[in-house]
Write a structure and sequence with these properties.
With about 140 residues, this protein is α+β, with helices and mostly antiparallel strands. The chain folds into two domains: about 60 residues; about 40 residues, no CATH class. The chain is built from five helices and four strands. Helix 2 packs antiparallel against helix 3. The structure holds zinc ion (ZN). The site of zinc ion (ZN) has 8 residues, from loops.
């Protein structure tokens, strides 16, 4: 019984590997589209809108298209562009998360020039922060 279960898992794994061979895979952009489509799906339980329904189908289909696409160089370039475009938003989200985790001892800021995350001690009043990466200086209240 245990053996056949393992065999089944192995068969499934090799099936997935064969399926994904030479495909782009579930990249950041596909993941984002999939995430938004799932949010739309939940929203539409309440909203019941045809427009949201088609948006959901579109985004879901696009994330699947990306995942199974064989044109890897093109998908890779698109994904890099997506990462570059959303860099600001993503690092802001990260900083928000870090600030929630760090509690009362320290605070995180993003350098406005290079996007580097900088940790400073909290409760020091107004201080000048110098970015360790690009040397940009800015004043923040901690
Ligand atoms: Zn900087």
């Amino acid at each position: 019984m245990k053996n056949s279960l393992r065999q089944m898992r192995f068969a499934l794994q090799s099936f997935l590997m064969r399926l994904m061979y030479g495909r782009n895979g579930f990249d950041n952009m596909a993941r984002a589209c999939y995430g938004v489509s799932m949010i739309l799906l939940v929203v539409n339980i309440f909203a019941g809108s045809v427009i949201i329904y088609f948006m959901w189908i579109g985004l879901f289909a696009y994330s699947m298209f990306r995942t199974f696409s064989r044109n890897i160089p093109k998908r890779y370039a698109e994904n890099q562009k997506y990462l570059q475009m959303t860099r600001g938003i993503r690092s802001r989200g990260e900083v928000l998360k870090l600030n929630m985790q760090s509690g009362s001892t320290s605070k995180y800021y993003i350098c406005s020039d290079c996007g580097q995350k900088i940790r400073v001690p909290k409760g020091k009043g107004k201080i000048e922060i110098r970015c360790p990466k690009c040397g940009n200086r800015f004043i923040k209240k901690t």
